[in-house]
Amino acid sequence: MKRIGSKVLMLCTAMGFGLSAAGTALGAETLDDVMKRRGLTDKDILAAAKTYVPTGKRDEYIAFSSGGQSGQLIVYGIPSMRILKYVAVFTPEPWQGYGFDDESKAVLAQGRINGKDINFGDTHHPAISETNGVYDGQFLFINDKNNPRIAVVDLHDFETKQIVVNPIMKSDHGGAFVTPNTEYVIEASQYAAPFENGFVPLEQFNEKYRGAVTYWKFNRETGRIVPEESFSVELPPYSQDLSDFGKGPSDGWSFTNSFCSERYVGGIERGRPPFEAGCSQKDTDFFHMVNWRKAAELVKAGKAKQINGHNVITMDTSVAEGILFLVPEPKSPHGMDVSPDGKFMIVSGKLDSHTYVYSFDKLMGLINAKDYAGKDPYGIPILDLKKSLHTQVQVGLGPLHTQYDSKPCVAYTSIYVDSQVTKWDYCEGKVLDKISIHYNIGHLMTMEGDSVTPQGKYLVSLNKLAIDRFNPVGPLHPQNHQLIDISGDKMQLLYDMPLPLGEPHYAVAIAADKLKPGIRYKSGWNSREDKRSAFRTRPGREKVERKDGVVHVYGTTIRSHITPEIIEVEEGDTVSVHMTNLERAEDETHGFAIYGTNVNLSLEPGKTASATFKAERAGVFPYYCTEFCSALHLEMQGYLLVKPKGYQATAAKGAEGTVYSKADYDKQHKTNVETQAVIDSVVAYITARNYQDFAPVVALVEDATDQLNFAADAKKKSDEFAAKEDWQNATLWAGQWWQYQVKAADIGLRAKTFLDQNGAKVVK
Ligand code: CUK
Ligand code: CUA
To answer: Domain range spanning residue 591?
Structure first.
């Protein structure tokens, strides 16, 4: 490699390419040249400079976008808009082994509905855990609209740890949103349905169909939702929509809007007007105000009813206890966004051109004075619209969602029909700026824009249609997230990012430095349950064990081999393979896949994962590592041999392949001694510097030391065979010794490069 590199260099010099004179040299373009060739304007260059993150550098914010119908979560950086990860949540995802190893199958199984595996989810709203209303970067929650479920993702490793199924709903939408200290995660229903699981005719819609809002109790210590401590508040069948928790003065309350408070049931095929007509007749719908803190006390006091084994506060109880109120809102509303100071609730009507700013003070004044405008058919008090409004602002046609700026009173609302973002002042009630987007924006997101400390800077417009923005890829278009600079008075469109996974609805973005993900697991870790795996295996302790009719394989992976390399079972056996990745080095993930079995494990450093399957038929099943982990990755392989029942070995001992002589051994030995000299020089270089001041280098040195210990073991074996003049085994072990040396050298060189690039000092 080195030799080729210097040849190229010589060639360049000979041809007169000055390396330092870039820009004037032949073939090197100037910025002007590039702008001319690619037809770029000054504005384009400015936008590029605002989004470009140079090679090796990182983004300022990390966005978590729902993955829509993919049932996953999309993680990308802002401002570069580079996709970093798809986190599997409700849907199997083979790269992460999600749904392909036993541990994650158990997580997916938590999401079964009436005993049925549900491997699809429609994710809408991610929420990052908060402490005192500020994103803390520890957990993320996301809902599944189609199958009313909430998932918990631990941001320590970006893995889904838990799925809870709503025990009374048949769909949800107003989730996930968290209380300012993440005590509860909210999930509100969407399409009303009977709480019980049986059939109820639509004629009984008003009496038997119900909406609800569920408050899932979250235990931060265990990092899990506690279903037994969770509860729901029964709501009328009004098609509840988005929700938000109060904060500051409104902490203790939650707000959930609704559409179709007409309780229309459709039936176009029965000659009735369709849902869309029947559900938008009245001028207003209602948002629901729930005093959740008091509701929690009612549950503790035993005032909840048990439905499907779940605590439900009925509407009668809510009315009697004064914890539920209705507030008229513009018809077919969508967003429900509480201002950062908790004083205002902003709602937009999709069929109206105004945002409605409600004053929490005024709402509480009406509630405290029992000043009601009326009651709904279920006896729930209705507050007066005019008396509870702070202001109404004409922002454009089809306003949906609102997000907040770091500047006081400044909000941004997505305008679906006009395809715009409107920047406006909700204190003064005036429009400040508008920008066109492409096309039909749904949600929008500012940096930490739904926390108590929004950071402004960037806004992402989550557009529903891409139409002509990208190279065509067939009738199904990618989604388009547009990045907008909101740091100045005028908004500036910077970048279009296609998202080809599903239709993202909401997204949240957190300052990157608040996230502290790990780079390895404690050794032998079951990441899904966050504990040491019962199947962890240490190096040298690999074994195959038959127990209770199951063949358990306790294996390990480390560059560049899988142990065991041969697994023999009998036709009809149930096989449970447990693999532990012994690596400590950053990013040294191994995969483990077996032919024809639907097994693929992702083994990040330290992880133990299992796969259980039935060896249904006799045959030969190669297995291998699915991550290109080292120069000898292809050799990271093995055979699962499934023998027919009653098979007797008859064939003679097979041939060994190549036979090695003393000359082969001597040659390998000489190479190893030379390699060791290189390693020694690198070690001397590193230890002569203040490498301990650089955490990544310390980790690399640890890893290299591991490899050198393995090398010493292999050398010992090689020496022993050499002493017995068994040149075959002496040569093979000398080869293995060299493998470890090469890995150690590679790691050492990476450490040396890091030290050189980061200004390490000579200390001795
Ligand atoms: S929703 Cu899709 S654009 Cu589910 Cu929050 Cu508004
Ligand atoms: Cu391990 Cu490839």
So the answer is: 525-643
550 and 632 share one domain? yes
Question: Residue 12 above 50 pLDDT?
Answer: no
d(CA 323, CA 704): 62
Task: Using alpha carbons, select from 344, 257, 250, 256 the residue that is nearest to residue 293.
Answer: 250
Contacts of 455 (CB under 8 A, 6+ apart): 406, 446, 447, 448, 449, 511
- CA 743-747-749 angle, 5° bins: 115
pLDDT in tens, 502-537: 999 999 999 999 999 999 999 999 999 999 999 999
Determine the Cα–Cα distance for residues 411 and 424; give it in Å rounded to an integer: 5
Q: Residue 632: inside a domain, yes or no?
A: yes
Choosing from 643, 670, 690, the residue where a domain stops is: 643
* One domain, residues 247 and 384: yes
Residue 214 pLDDT grade (very low, low, confident, very high; cuts 50, 70, 90): very high
Residue 638 pLDDT > 90: yes
DSSP 3-15: HHHHHHHHHHHHT
Q: Which residue, of 370, 394, 418, is where some domain finishes? A: 394
Contact partners, residue 80, CB within 8 Å, separation at least 6? 51, 52, 53, 59
The ligand placed nearest to the CA atom of residue 69 is 1
The one-letter code for the residue type at 596 is: G
Position 161 in a domain:
no
One domain, residues 726 and 610:
no
Residue 221 lies in a domain: yes
- Claim to verify: residue 616 and residue 727 sit in the same structural domain: no
DSSP 644: P
Name the token pair of 657.
């392949």
Measured in residues, the chain has a length of 764
332 and 206 in one domain?
Answer: yes
Closest protein CA for atom 1 of ligand 2: 590
- Give me the chain's average pLDDT, please: 93
Confidence of residue 39 (pLDDT cuts 50, 70, 90): very high
* 586 CA → ligand 2 middle, Å: 14
Burial class (CB in 10 A: 0-12, 13-18, 19+), 381: buried
Nearest atom (ligand 2) to Cα of 627:
2
Spatial distance between the Cα atoms of 239 and 133, rounded to a whole number of angstroms:
28
Instruction: Indicate whether residue 603 lines ligand 2 (CB < 6 A).
Output: no
Instruction: Indicate if 566 and 603 belong to the same structural domain.
Output: yes
At 65-117, the pLDDT tens digits run 999 999 999 999 999 999 999 999 999 999 999 999 999 999 999 999 999 99
436 in a domain, yes or no? no
Ligand 1, closest atom to CA 462? 3
Percent of the chain having pLDDT more than 90?
83
Rounded mean pLDDT, 413-436: 97
Percent above pLDDT 70 for the chain? 96
- The response to whether residue 443 sits with its C-beta less than 6 Å from ligand 1 reads yes
**540 and 680 share one domain:** no
CATH code where residue 531 lies? 2.60.40.420
State the pairing for strand pair 224-235/209-219.
Answer: antiparallel
Round to whole Å and give the CA distance between 263 and 377.
11
CATH number at residue 226: 2.130.10.10
Model confidence pLDDT, tens digit, residues 50-77: 999 999 999 999 999 999 999 999 999 9
Ligand nearest to the CA of 507: 1
Domain count, the chain: 3
What are 676-699's pLDDT values in tens digits?
999 999 999 999 999 999 988 988
Q: Are 557 and 612 members of one domain?
A: yes
pTM across the whole model: 0.90
Question: For a pocket test of ligand 1, which of 257, 401, 416 has the largest count of ligand atoms closer than 8 A to its C-beta?
Answer: 401
Strands, DSSP E only, in 145-252? 149-154, 159-165, 177-178, 184-188, 193-194, 209-219, 224-235, 240-245
Residues 654-679, buried b or exposed e (16+ Cβ, 10 A)?
eeeeeebeeebbeebbeebeebbeeb
